Amino acid sequence: MKSFVQRALTSPAAGLLMVILLLGTILTLFAGTHVDRRTGVEVNNFLNSNTLVQTATDASFFAIMAVGATFVIISGGIDLSVGSVYALAGVTMALALRALAPSSDAATVLIGLGICVAVGLVCGVLNGLMVVTLPVHPFVITLGTMWIVRGLAFVISRAESIVVPASLTGMAKASLGLTETLYPVPMLMMIAAAVVGMVYLERTVMGRHIFAFGGNPEASRFAGLRLGRIQMGVFVVSGLTAGLAAFLGASFYGSASCGDAAGYELYVIASAVVGGASLTGGKGSAISAMLGALLIVLIRQSIRTLRLDQNYEWIVIGCAIIIAVVLDQGSARVAARRLAAAPTGGTR
Amino acid sequence: MIHPRLVLPLALAALTAALAACSGAPPSPAPAAGGASPAAGTPAGAKKKIKIALIAKSSTNPVFLAARTGAEAAAKELGPKNGVEIEVAWLTPPQEDGQIQAQRIAQAVNEGADAVVISCSDAGKVTGAIDDAVGRGLAVMTFDSDAPQSKRFTFYGVDDLKTGQTTMAELATQMGGKGKVAVLQGNQNAPNLQKRVQGVREEAAKHPGIEIVGVFPNIETPQDAAAEVIRVNNAYPEIQGWAMVGGWPLFTRTLLDEIDPKRMKIVAVDALPVELPYVEKGLAPVLLAQPVYLWGYVSVSTIVDKLVLNKTIPERLPMELVRVSKENLGDWARQLKTWGFTDVPDKYLQMGASAK
What we know:
The complex is a heterodimer of chains A (348) and B (356). With 348 residues, chain A is an all-alpha fold. Chain A has 14 helices and 4 strands. In chain A, strands 1-2 form a two-stranded antiparallel sheet. A two-stranded antiparallel ribbon of chain A has the order 3-4. Chain B has 356 residues and is an alpha/beta fold. Chain B is built from 12 helices and 12 strands.
């Protein structure tokens, strides 16, 4: 039996964490320094609290979506509509708050959150319904809804960038007792989403059903699992996380427009895949998806901190996705061979 | 043995380490003590180095590459003249994204930049980040596309409403005051382009013979924009003129072969080297050039004026359009050449040169 330490060290999360630390070390060494305006102290261009929190903040919006996308990917599906759901949720919230003009800050935050989550929920239900009832792969369904939802956002916003109430920005940029230039709320929400996702996937029966369904749909059907409900559920979770990310994003940046998060679905899927999720289903981790998002942002950050041509960003991320999928398939084959060779009743 | 799951992260780390080794970027020397922004009261000449973050809308749009050339030329010229070292850090996203621009502003602040110069893809998205940067002592100015509600100290660019009006007025003249026209809008979220379209509409209303059949947004890449024009022309064969508030489709030669200049006229904003054949052929008899090189050049010199020379800067620095037609094609081509454009065809450089 493997020891806890051995399992922890060989888990995808440990590997990602290690490389994040390694990259951080490299960046710290190469980043150079500057004198902080407020304190007059010389600080490292990378290893300073503002940059570290900023990096986590940059990752948080698509890391939260990546947690939801991981549910879908574990089930063997894919959701290309998350960026569009993000845009629709954001503009719907901004328009509604402009029309309603709630009297108190708390009401503004609650109504804004409620609207974003509701839009995400509706989009998730629609995606799930179509995936369950239509004989079409989720790729095609969500490719279609990606354009439909983006189009809806365009029509209702009339391409306007709609400013959200200041109370929302105040909430998203609350310093929570830290230095006033640090904004940890998106980072904390990202961690919370990843932890909730991990607990659901790994510690609940419903979560294990998703793994079972993604790993072997036929066996799951014979085992009596309600497959339609599982599929519906994962798309609802994906929609909900897109709504939550939209709420945070629009609040943090102070406005919402129909062009928001265009192309982010690729970052979201890349985060899940780099985090070890298998596109053939049955494997994935919410925590690793978050770390995958952090790693991608760190790669982006490193390209600028090291003053490289920023087009390397796309090349590196593209390489990462291909390597991840190739390794994933390779390790799946190795695991299958080991399983076949193992004596009956072998360990997991 | 390395666990298969560790291979990917390690491969990525190795890749980044290799990139770091290849970058050749030495650690930046620490600025001199007391290097706080001169805008906050440091006397002129005390600062040894100014780091300016240049954030345009998209690094795939050639007009912003010209702005970068201008900014770097200004840094090279004005630095020694004023006894400072000026570094221009190009932080432009690969494609338009207001959220990424806001992130780049924050990055510039965290890495010790003294000033930010930005063309805003989405004013609403970057206003908070601009205000944060100003709050932390940076000088921030906008060019091309403004964020008027922010705390930026100035804006340099054309009057967009007037630009739209001029575009339509020129087109109406070329069409003899009558006919059906289409408007090419670009990114429908960009406030500067929205204003230009508003200007086009206002001017069209003054010409009873002119009818706008539609305003068409497009992805701001040359191929996508040219494809959109062809699609619209096929759908609306009655179109006789195009008012383009940006020159995107003319950054390729596609439309030169697709459209008969006797049947259709184009008036567009911008006049880059690749667009000059459109003027020569008469398909775009008038281009309204924004001196895009000056976006970068004037922005850097304005930052130097503010941070080094402590000059008072007006809230708006107007940029004038240059009307480019067959009459001044040679002069404009030579102007582009002196601004560092390397792709100006020789035949335009020769035009009218002997008369000078």
